[in-house]
User: Which sequence fits this backbone?
C-alpha cells in the first residue's frame, strides 16, 4: 500500500483528514516511555484511551470544568442548532452534573469572561471563528481546547453527538457498558488537559445485532449507526421516521421480510408471478436442487428444468433467473412501488435467497462463465436495478457476496449506489472438503486464505464493500465460543484492505447469550477505532461491568478458554458443538476455578447476578456433558466445582436464565441431555 495505516490515521492538528485524527497533550514524549506514561497520568488520562496516541507534549495549563462541585464553565449551543446538537448538549450537561455534583447551564450566547464548552460547529465558531468541519463527513469529531474554552463538535448529523460522548468517555471517565449498566465517576473538581483531537471513523457503517445493542441511548453513546439500532420512531408498520435527536441511522432496510437480506426471491413471489412467468424461476437439475460444482459456480452439467408449480418453487427454494430482461423490468417496477409507500428506508436488498441454489440455464451460465464466478451475474442484476434509481431516490441497493457468490467477478463492478455485503461464511458445500471459515484465528490467517483472497478481490473492484461478520455460535448460543481474541485483528485487517462498513450478526432476539454484553461493547469500540488494544478493552470492560474485584477473574476465564482452543488447534466455526475438545474436563476445570472466584469476589447483588449470567455457558456445557465430566474429575482426583445433583444445577441454571429473560431457554431445555435430567427426577 502507498501509505501505512498509521500514516492514513494520524494527521497534524489543523490539517484536513478524511480518516484520521491527532491527540495532542503538550510536547513530544513517546507514550510507551516512562516519562510519557507519567505525563499521561498527570494529564488525567482515563482507563480507556480511545485514540492510540503517538506523542504527548509537556504539560500545559488545564481547563477547570468544576471546582468543589461548582461549575466553572457554561455549555454554549447556537440558538438555531439542530436536534442532534441540542441533544448532545443536554447529555453533556446531565453527565457533567452527575460527575461533579454541580448544575451545568446551557446558553445560546457566549457569556463575557467565562470559559465555555462550545457544542456543535456553530457554537465552535463563537470560540474559534475559523473553525471548519471540512473533511469530517457526517461522523467525524473535533475535541479542542482553544483560548481557555473547549470545543466539542463534528459533522452533521452524528458528529457532535460522538464528540460529546468521546469526551465524556475518554477525559471524564464515563462508560456505557450495557443499556442497564454504566459508570459515572464522582469528581467534584474536574480538570481536563489541553486537547486537540480530530478523528473520522474508518468504518462509515457500524452495526451490531446483539439484542441489547438495539437500545437507542446505548447505540448512540457507543457510536453504532446501523440497521439494528433503534434510532428511529415507529408509530405503525410503514411509518418509521429517523430519531433525529440521536442522529438516526447511517443506512436502514425497510422493515419487511420482502426487502431485508435474502430478499430477491420475495421481490417476485411465485404466488403472484409463476402462473404467467414460470421462466422467471431458476432452472436446476432434479438430482441436485441445492448443489454447486466448485467455488463460485453452480453445477450446470446435465439437463435442468424450470419448476412445475408454486409448491415446487417454495419447497426447493428456487431462486430467480437473473438474466431474464423481463424479470429485471418487473423488479424495477416493484422497487418503485415499494418506495412509494413513504417509508424512511435507505437500503433495498437484492440478495440471493439463503442456501446454495442458483439458476443453471444457458443464458445465466454464459454470463457466469464470462465473469468467472456466479457473483458476476448477481452483481449485473443488482446494478441493472440500482441504476434506475441512481439520481432520483437517494437510496442504495445491497447484495450479498455469500456462499456461491462469495468469489468476486472478473469484470463486473458494483454500481455507484450498490453496496456489496461480503459475508464471513464458507463459499461452497462439496462433499469431503472443509470450506468453513475458522473463527479461532484471524481472517488473514493461513486457514482462511481463500476468504482473504476473495476480500481483496472485492475491494479491488473499487466498489463500496461492507463486511457482514458472523460473531457468535448459532447452533448453541449459550455455549462458550472463544472467538473474542480475533475481533481486533479482523477489524484492522478489514480497515487496512479498504472495507468501508462493518456489520456483526449475532443473537438479536434474546438477551443473555454468551458474554453478549462484552461482545457488544467490544465490537462497538473496535468498529469505531480498530487500532485500540482489544485485550486492554476486555480488561476495562470486565472491571467496569463485573466489578474491580470480580473482573480480573472473568478475564482469566476468557483467556483460559481461548488458550484451550489454541492448544487443541480446533477449527471453531459458527456451528461448533458442545462436544468440542476445548471443553474437555481439564479445560472446564480451570474455567470453573476462575468463574467461582469471580462469584466469590463480586461485592454486590447486582454484580453477583452479572457473574451468574456469565457462568451460564459453562453450566450448560457441564449439564450437556455431565457424566463424562464427573467421571473425568473422579479419575483425576479433582474436586467437583458444582453441586453433586445435576437437577440442582439445572434448577439454578433455569432460575438465572429466566431472570435474565433468555428466550432460547425453551430450546435449551429440549436438548436430549437436559430433558433426561428433567425427566429423571
Assistant:
Amino acid at each position: 500500500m502507498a501509505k501505512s495505516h498509521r500514516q492514513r490515521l494520524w494527521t497534524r492538528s489543523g490539517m484536513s483528514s478524511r480518516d484520521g485524527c491527532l491527540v495532542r497533550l503538550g510536547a513530544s514524549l513517546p507514550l510507551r516511555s516512562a516519562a510519557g506514561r507519567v505525563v499521561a497520568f498527570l494529564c488525567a488520562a482515563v482507563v480507556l484511551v480511545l485514540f492510540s496516541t503517538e506523542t504527548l507534549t509537556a504539560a500545559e495549563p488545564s481547563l477547570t470544568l468544576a471546582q468543589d462541585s461548582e461549575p466553572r464553565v457554561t455549555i454554549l449551543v447556537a440558538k438555531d442548532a439542530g436536534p442532534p446538537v441540542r441533544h448532545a448538549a443536554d447529555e453533556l450537561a446531565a453527565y457533567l452534573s452527575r460527575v461533579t455534583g454541580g448544575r451545568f447551564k446551557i446558553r445560546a450566547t457566549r457569556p463575557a469572561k467565562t470559559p465555555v464548552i462550545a457544542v456543535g460547529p456553530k457554537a465552535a465558531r463563537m470560540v474559534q471563528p475559523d473553525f471548519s468541519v471540512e473533511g469530517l463527513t457526517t461522523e467525524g469529531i473535533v475535541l479542542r481546547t482553544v483560548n481557555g474554552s473547549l470545543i466539542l463538535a463534528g459533522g452533521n448529523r452524528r458528529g457532535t453527538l460522538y464528540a460529546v460522548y468521546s469526551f465524556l468517555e475518554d477525559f471524564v471517565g464515563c462508560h456505557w457498558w450495557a443499556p442497564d449498566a454504566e459508570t459515572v465517576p464522582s469528581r467534584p473538581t474536574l480538570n481536563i488537559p489541553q486537547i486537540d483531537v480530530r478523528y473520522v471513523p474508518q468504518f462509515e457503517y457500524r452495526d451490531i445485532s446483539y439484542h441489547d445493542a438495539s437500545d437507542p441511548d446505548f447505540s448512540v453513546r457507543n457510536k453504532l449507526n446501523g440497521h439494528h439500532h433503534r434510532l428511529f420512531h415507529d408509530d405503525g408498520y410503514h411509518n418509521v421516521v429517523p430519531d433525529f435527536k440521536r442522529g438516526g441511522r447511517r443506512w436502514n432496510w425497510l422493515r419487511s421480510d420482502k426487502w431485508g437480506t435474502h430478499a430477491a426471491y420475495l421481490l417476485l413471489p411465485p404466488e403472484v408471478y409463476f402462473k404467467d412467468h414460470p421462466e422467471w424461476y431458476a432452472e436446476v437439475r432434479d438430482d441436485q436442487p441445492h448443489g454447486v460444482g466448485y467455488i463460485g459456480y453452480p453445477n450446470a452439467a446435465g439437463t435442468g428444468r424450470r419448476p412445475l408449480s408454486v409448491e415446487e418453487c417454495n419447497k426447493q427454494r428456487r431462486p430467480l433467473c437473473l438474466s431474464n430482461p423481463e424479470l429485471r423490468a418487473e423488479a424495477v417496477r416493484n422497487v418503485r412501488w415499494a418506495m412509494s409507500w413513504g417509508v424512511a428506508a435507505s437500503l433495498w436488498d437484492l440478495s440471493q435467497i439463503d442456501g446454495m441454489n442458483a439458476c443453471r440455464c444457458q443464458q445465466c451460465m454464459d454470463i457466469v462463465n464470462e465473469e468467472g464466478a456466479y457473483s458476476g451475474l448477481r452483481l449485473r442484476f443488482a446494478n441493472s436495478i440500482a441504476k434506475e434509481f441512481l439520481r432520483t431516490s437517494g437510496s442504495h441497493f445491497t447484495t450479498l457476496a455469500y456462499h456461491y457468490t462469495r468469489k468476486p467477478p472478473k469484470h463486473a463492478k458494483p454500481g455507484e449506489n450498490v453496496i456489496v455485503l461480503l459475508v464471513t461464511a464458507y463459499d461452497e458445500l462439496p462433499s469431503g472438503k472443509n470450506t468453513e471459515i475458522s473463527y479461532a484465528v484471524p481472517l488473514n490467517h493461513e486457514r482462511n486464505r481463500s476468504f482473504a483472497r476473495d476480500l481483496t478481490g472485492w475491494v479491488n473492484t473499487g466498489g463500496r464493500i461492507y463486511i457482514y461478520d458472523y460473531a457468535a455460535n448459532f447452533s448453541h448460543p449459550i455455549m462458550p465460543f472463544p472467538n473474542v481474541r480475533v475481533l481486533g485483528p479482523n477489524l484492522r485487517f478489514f480497515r487496512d484492505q479498504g472495507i468501508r462498513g462493518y456489520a456483526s450478526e449475532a443473537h438479536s432476539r434474546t438477551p443473555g447469550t454468551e458474554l453478549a454484553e462484552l461482545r457488544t461493547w467490544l465490537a462497538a469500540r473496535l468498529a469505531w477505532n480498530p487500532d485500540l488494544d482489544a485485550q486492554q478493552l476486555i480488561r476495562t470492560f470486565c472491571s467496569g461491568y463485573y466489578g474491580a474485584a470480580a473482573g480480573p477473574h472473568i478475564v482469566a476465564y476468557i483467556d483460559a478458554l481461548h488458550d484451550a482452543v489454541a492448544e487443541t488447534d480446533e477449527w471453531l466455526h459458527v456451528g461448533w458443538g458442545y462436544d468440542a475438545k476445548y471443553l474437555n474436563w481439564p479445560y472446564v476445570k480451570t474455567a470453573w476455578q476462575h468463574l467461582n472466584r469471580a462469584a466469590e469476589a463480586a461485592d454486590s447483588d447486582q454484580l453477583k447476578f452479572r457473574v451468574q449470567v456469565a457462568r451460564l455457558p459453562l453450566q450448560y456445557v457441564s449439564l450437556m456433558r455431565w457424566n463424562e465430566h464427573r467421571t473425568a474429575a473422579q479419575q483425576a482426583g479433582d474436586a467437583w466445582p458444582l453441586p453433586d445433583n445435576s437437577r440442582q444445577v439445572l434448577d439454578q441454571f433455569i432460575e438465572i436464565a429466566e431472570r435474565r429473560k433468555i428466550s432460547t431457554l425453551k430450546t435449551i431445555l429440549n436438548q436430549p441431555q437436559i430433558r433426561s435430567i428433567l425427566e429423571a427426577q
User: Anything to note?
Assistant: Confidence is low (pLDDT under 50) at residues 1-59. The domain at 5-200 is CATH 3.30.379.10 (Chitobiase; domain 2).
